[in-house]
Structures are given as structure tokens and as C-alpha cells.
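Escalated from tier 1: D-galactaro-1,5-lactone holo job.
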Amino acid sequence: MRLLLTGACGGVGTMIRPLLLERYGSVLLSDRVEPEGLKPGETFVKADLGNADQIDALTKQCDAIIHLGGVSVEEPWEPILAANIEGLYTLYEAARVNGVERIVFASSNHAVGFYPRDIVIDHEKPVRPDSRYGVSKAFGEALGGLYSDKHGLRILNIRIGNVGYRPIDRRRMSIWLHPEDLVQLCAIGLEHPDLHYEIVYGFSDCEPAWWDNRRATELGYQPKYRSAEFRDEVLAEDPPPGADDASEIYQGGAFVLEP
Ligand code: 15L
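Tier 2 regenerated the structure:
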């Protein structure tokens, strides 16, 4: 498989690069900035989602894409429109034209961030974005639906929580995703023989859990890492807030308060 990782130089890309290299032997990386410490087996092509010619050239060199590129937090509308809406369309269209077979799309918990924390949601619940960024991720999931149903690409949308080596606060106790578990989910998107179009939640074995990830389980996901192992230290660092704090009521946390 000729695998392309977009957004390879970002925080998440940097964490999963070595794991992808170990699993797949070679990876084509792209980003708008140069990567550090390119390893044997890694090739880098500089590309911008706003440049259709660059994206066309890039997608000619791969059969499968893990798409982490684009805006990854709340921002003004213009950059989100350029990268996550128009840029994503450019990528999917180039992927179709150039015969890319699979796309793993880094969606986000912020596509459903306005669900309260006291209910458990699954992959069938309608989106409830908490931000312009969350809306762009809902768009990305919908775009993937079009390209799988109409054009036969195999698409896995991962509603990623928070990727890191440990949960960094109380909210992240419920949505933390260890990089190895993320790569396990990506591997489902890249390798599962029956994949057509799926939405799964990107979190490790977390509690309290807000997400029913049975679809991921059915596809073979078995998270290795447990947030409960960090409970004492996280609660000591991040004591419970007041009950009327909106950023503590909703799953999306502070994103619900962003102007
Ligand atoms: C995301 O979607 C962001 O990409 C990441 O930076 C975190 O803010 C994360 O969500 C989160 O909700 O913790």
C-alpha cells in the first residue's frame, strides 16, 4: 500500500509517524512545513490544501490517505473554509480522479460537542457541532459519505477525542486517545476488507465514557490504554468545577464558549 499522511508535521502526525512507519514500512508525508528527522522509509512532499495542482500531484502517489491536514482547532471562518471545506473537497476530488481507494478522515469530537456529558452517544446520533471547526468536521463526514456511496472510496471517519500519551485533564479522562490506539483505528480504515463508510469514536478505554463505540468494536478495535490508570493524578491536578460552568456541561468543553 502506498500510504499518504497529510498534516504529518502537526502534533498528532508527529506522534503517529513512527508507528505508521513500523507497521507499513514506508509512508509518504505531506504538510505545509518541512518535517524534522525524516527516517528511512519516509518521503516528504510539501503541499497546501489550497493548491489543487499540488494536491493532484500528491494523490497520484498514493492508494490510501490518512488525512490529518487542515485547521485543527476553532478559528475564524476564512481559514476553516479554505482548508477544511474547500481544501477537503479538493483532496477528495483529487483522490477520486487519481484512483485512491481508502481515506481515513480525522474528524473530531467537536462535530458532536454540544451533546451534554450526562448522556452516551453512538455513531448514529445526528451531529451537534460546538464550533465552526466542528461544523467543518461534520461537513468532512458528509463529504466522505458522498465519495463512498457515489464513487466507491472506502472511508473511515474517526471522531478523535484528544491524542496524547496521557489524559491531560478531567474532560480528557473521557476522550483521551493514545497514539497507538489511534493507529489501531487507522489500520481498520486502511485494511478492513469490508469497509465501505463508517463513523467511529477515537478514544482509548476511557471512563466515565460518553461514547458508545460499538461500531469500532465490531470492526475489531480493542483499545490498549485505560484512562482510569491516570485518575488520581488527573483529579488532583484538575478538581471538579461549579455545576453551572457551560464548558463542563457539554462534551466539547471550552469549544462551546468560543465566540
Ligand atoms: C480537537 O479536535 C483538536 O484538534 C484538539 O486540538 C483538541 O482541542 C481536541 O479536539 C479536544 O477536544 O481536546
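The longest strand covers residues 102-108.
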